[in-house]
Amino acid sequence: MERKIHVVPVVLFLWVCTCVTASVTYDHKSLIINGKRRILISGSIHYPRSTPQMWPDLIQKAKDGGLDVIQTYVFWNGHEPSPGNYYFQDRYDLVRFVKLVQQAGLYVHLRIGPYVCAEWNFGGFPIWLKYVPGIEFRTDNGPFKAAMQKFTQKIVSLMKSEGLFQSQGGPIIMSQIENEYGPVEWEIGAPGRSYTRWAASMAVALDTGVPWVMCKQQDAPDPVIDTCNAFYCEGFTPNKNYKPKMWTENWTGWYTAFGGATPIRPAEDIAFSVARFIQNRGSFVNYYMYHGGTNFGRTAAGRFIATSYDYDAPLDEYGLPNEPKWTHLRDLHKAIKQCEPSLVAVDPTLTLIANNIEAHVYKTTTSCAAFLANYNTGSSAKVRFGNGVYDVPAWSISILPDCKTEVFNTAKVSALRFERKMTPVIGRFGWLSFNEVPESSGPNDRLTANSLLEQVYVTKDSSDYLWYMTDVNISPNEGFLRNGQSPVLTAMSAGHVLHVFINGQLSGTSYGGLDNPKLTFSDSVKLRAGNNKVSLLSVAVGLPNVGTHFEKWNAGVLGPVTLNGLNEGTRDLSKQKWSYKVGLKGESLSLHTESGSSSVDWVQGSLLAVKQPLTWYKTTFSAPAGNEPLALDMSTMGKGEIWINGQSIGRHWPGYKAGGNCGACNYAGTYTEKKCLTNCGQPSQRWYHVPRAWLRPGGNSLVVFEEWGGNPAGISLVKRT
Ligand code: GAL
């Protein structure tokens, strides 16, 4: 008996060792790739946020910037638009993307989710998932777990069939299951805890041969590694002392919302955050985002996420280096790489040199790397270390890969600051216009109810637009018809935008914002004796992507809808008969396509619609010579959507001006997404990326739907340099 007990551990040990050398494991220091501990620099590039034609260049620039790993989410709703119908083409060609990263000699961190957050429509969930009977998202719920497991398996087996895991010789060194589930679990308690355990074991059972992480998940069950997401992560410790300290999201800036200012994060501060993490035993840092790109089509999440997902990332929306950030971080990475042999070999020692001044030293018998840190926000310091004296600016870290020579300091930026330039290449287009007549209730309405219906329930997100239409009878005896005091229509909506049409005329518009998507329209309306057509065009700006049970959040006119100032006082319209129509006429006619656009009569010249709601515009143009990235300057337009050769480049909303305070920005001191804002008082987004790959040499069609009212004469095509 005793003998047997001794034999088993030896056999197991040998088995573990063979695995270690064939693939990816970890210890408390770092990931171990084919037997070697590694300090890894990673960057997020989300494949559907650029075109496949841009991918090789983005990946190459990431490599030139000193990255080892490309991190991406997997976007379920892009891959499974209806149950069991999978799509892996064009911008969703995940295999091609992963193989391009491999060809460039970089690794991949695949965040399967399949919940991804990411400012992506519905956090990546397909809309049909919401209507699976009995489903409840992201908790211990049978239908949800079945769907999640099926999609996760699908992605893992696709990657396996292409040999893409490192254990198969591929580039994927790590995967992720779920995303920042910890806070949700904390809120919902027991079912959340068992869901976490289930998710981890489901993932691990897929046997990818590479580690799984769960980010912001303190209780990530072994062998899953819990990781940090934040602007700073030096204080983070994984839940077991045999797991490496990894940072899956170091936010390089922040997203822009329509109505919000544009956040930027100083290069000095992000470099500081990375050096601070590495000097404190960190071994994996991912920039979220390294290239943010564009929310094409209707992929941007509610609420109010802008079409640009530039993120102030090291590569800008168009794929050009964002300077000085890109170069400064490249130089940081070089310095860290010089320290790598020491960093992976030993644990650091920490010496307090003075108040807020520290030395972190990784010393082996053959090598030594030091980090000299000054946490003071207001004063630089002369730091005596070894035989030298080093000048360490406020809020900065100097890196000494040989414990003597400073090769990099996070606050000494030598790269040049580049101004973004948008140069017009087509100053004016020749436009045609077509005006949609607002919908109104009629005898043949197919969908009616004696109540106000929730918007997403009706549209199933097939369109941003839902018409709520009703009739209002006004007696000739109404006092307001004589005293000139128009009644006030009040409509409460769960979001996001509401255009009110009375008898075919736009009467007013209201909209919510990022902090509160709800809105109330309340204004006097012109009514006449007899029947009046009240048509409310409710517009959703994407489905929410975050928040506990975000799938249950409503949109649209939920009421009450009232009319005040009648003889009877207030009339509640909420429970009377309402008709519904999903989408715009132009959408059902596919006016954004060449074939569809011939189905209506367009006008031009003096008849061209200007500053009118519900207007479609179209024009054609030739692709400008050269290969600089292109964009449309939409500053004279209100809100709507833009298509190039039938493909949507996203929602435009320059009519929504950026609120907030754009003060001076000092790099020193703790950064938050509210700290360094730009663009206040300007349109939150003025320029809209036109991918070169979507153009042909001549005869390109450009279609704009304007829901609010704008002047297309001001639209120009610009190139970015
Ligand atoms: C994180 C989330 C990301 C992204 C980010 C903000 O919490 O994991 O997916 O939404 O916030 O850009």
Automatic annotation (TrEMBL):
Gene3D superfamilies linked: Galactose-binding domain-like, Glycosidases
Domain Glycoside hydrolase 35 catalytic, residue spans: 30-335
Sorted UniProt keywords: Glycosidase, Hydrolase, Signal
Residue ranges of every copy of the Beta-galactosidase beta-sandwich domain listed in the record: 358-413
Annotated EC: 3.2.1.23
Membrane-spanning intervals of the chain: none
A molecular function GO annotation: beta-galactosidase activity
Catalytic activity annotation: Hydrolysis of terminal non-reducing beta-D-galactose residues in beta-D-galactosides
Domain of life of the organism encoding this protein: Eukaryota
UniProt xrefs under InterPro entries: BetaGal_gal-bd, Galactose-bd-like_sf, GH, GHD, Gly_Hdrlase_35_cat, Glyco_hydro_35_CS, Glycoside_Hdrlase_35
BP terms from Gene Ontology: carbohydrate metabolic process
Annotated signal peptide: 1-22
PROSITE patterns xrefs: GLYCOSYL_HYDROL_F35
Domain annotation Beta-galactosidase galactose-binding: ranges: 465-532, 614-700
UniProt record similarity statement: Belongs to the glycosyl hydrolase 35 family.
Protein name: Beta-galactosidase
Species of provenance: Arachis duranensis (Wild peanut)
